[in-house]
Give the backbone structure.
Amino acid sequence: MDIQAQKIELIQMLLSTIKPNIIKKIKAIFEEANIVAVENNIMTIDQIEKEIEEAESDIKAGRTYSTAQIREHFKL
């Protein structure tokens, strides 16, 4: 069974369970691995913190766009 099939199987099992302790255990596994879900992407806390630091650095360096520039780019 490939990884995608295993994920689907796990999701189906999770959705059908009525036992809160199973959900707590699964959540604890992810928390122990320092993994959180962010916009359909799985990132570690370290990865999130790194992206925040990079964004703050870009802001300080003036690497930003105005709302008008974004609207023009996307022609909103």
The CA atoms of residues 11 and 53 lie 33 Å apart.
